[in-house]
Write a structure and sequence with these properties.
heterodimer, A: about 210 residues, alpha+beta, four-stranded antiparallel beta sheet, three-stranded antiparallel beta sheet, 6 helices, 7 strands, B: about 90 residues, mainly alpha, two-stranded antiparallel sheet, 2 strands, elongated
């Protein structure tokens, strides 16, 4: 469970917090790269031993090999760490009041977008491709009222369930923001209008 | 013929660059990574393996005589390109 104090712009009235990241399957290239980083120096050593055995006969050959290998290992580790950071710091948080999309690109590019839940108009989930269908991960699009721009969460696990939960939470949040919702979506007709006006009047009294 | 310490200087310059990048990366991770076991574990693994590689190679380099000259092209011969038997 996430500590609410660590959310951007903490709001302690939030009770339900879900944190989503890209599906672990998107980490497969990173896992393969890790294997490569650890195997390559040993493979290089074996290849030199077989094809250029005289390389290690002099101490300078060994020194040059260790100089090169240590630099390869260090920058390989740095590359892996930064790739993991790129995965780990891309976060999609849904609370019972808002949606936060944190996007980290490289070391110095970070975007934090926030959306009040009651402003959510339309949520779409999309599962595309063989692997995504097998492992149940995909994209979720959240559309806000009056804006063409929409939130796009890539490769998150169980997108259908997430989309459904967002809609439920948005519905609940709209009940607490009736005035803002009417401002945003307009006044409904007929019976609904009367119910909403009554609810607002009750809220004003309390 | 080159003195061996030139390669040590190049290595030190690259290690300095690595240390700077590693410091910035670690700071960013600890600053923005929401408090979770994986944030701490991945940072610890990265720092520990970097220290292991740096320490291991550093200890080895302490035993090296860097004033020795090195001839990088000693194994190369014109005979590879101009084989006298052909």
């Amino acid at each position: 469970m996430i500590d609410l104090h660590h959310l951007p712009g903490p709001d302690l009235r939030e009770t339900e917090v879900h944190v989503f990241r890209r599906h672990w399957l998107t980490l497969v290239p990173l896992i393969l790269s890790t294997g490569l980083v650890f195997i390559l120096p040993f493979a290089g050593y074996a290849a030199l031993r077989i094809f250029r055995a005289e390389w290690f006969e002099t101490p300078t050959g060994t020194i040059m090999f260790i100089l090169g290998t240590s630099i390869f290992f260090l920058f390989g580790l740095l590359f892996l760490f930064q790739t993991f950071m790129d995965y780990w710091l891309d976060i999609f948080i849904v609370t019972d009041k808002r949606i936060i999309d944190i996007n980290q690109t490289g070391l110095f590019h970070r975007t934090v977008s926030e959306l009040r839940l009651y402003r959510t108009q339309d949520v779409t989930s999309e599962v595309k491709g063989f692997l995504a269908s097998m492992f149940d991960f995909g994209d979720v699009y959240v559309q806000t009222a009056g804006e063409t721009e929409r939130f796009h969460f890539k490769d998150i696990p169980h997108p259908d369930a997430v989309a459904k939960r967002i809609l439920e939470l948005a519905e609940e949040d709209r009940k607490n923001h009736l005035e803002e919702t009417i401002e945003e979506f307009g006044m409904p007709d007929g019976d609904n209008q009367a119910i909403i006006q009554k609810t607002i009047a009750k809220k004003m009294e309390s | 013929m080159f003195p061996l310490w030139i390669f040590l200087l190049i290595w030190l310059a690259l290690v300095s660059l690595f240390c700077l990048m590693a410091f910035i990366s670690t700071m960013q991770m600890l600053r923005y990574g929401i408090r979770a076991h994986w944030t701490m574990l991945s940072t610890f693994l990265f720092v520990a393996s970097s220290v292991f590689v740096l320490g291991g190679s550093g200890l080895f380099f302490l035993t090296v005589d860097w004033s020795e000259p090195i001839d990088l092209f000693s194994g190369w011969s014109n005979s590879i390109m101009f084989d006298p038997n052909q």
